[in-house]
Amino acid sequence: MENNKDKHTEEKVHYPCPFCFTVLSMQGSEFRRIHSAGTIIDASKTGVEVMTEFPLQPGQVLQWDDRHKQNRLHIALVKWSREQDDHYRAGLLFI
Fold this sequence. Notes:
Order of helices and strands: EEEEEE
Structural class: mainly beta
CATH topology: Thrombin, subunit H
Strand content: over 45%
Number of strands: 6
C-alpha cells in the first residue's frame, strides 16, 4: 500500500480539533446534505487530514464552518480515505 503522506510536500501542522461537517452529494437528480462529525488531525495550507466514523469516499465534497472566522466556510474534496479500526482516516484538499 502506498503511503499517502509521502505525496504531501508541504509542511503539516498537528492540529487536533473536533469539527462538524456536511457531505454534499447528488443521488440521481436529488441534491443531498449529510451531516456528521469528526476530528481534524493535522492541517496545511492546501488541506487537512481527518478522522471520522462516517465512511468518507474519494470524490466527495465536504463543507464546514471556520472556527476562527465567523461566516467563513471551508469546502474540500476527499482525495483519499482508508478504514482504520472503526473509523475512517481521510485527506481533504481545499477547493
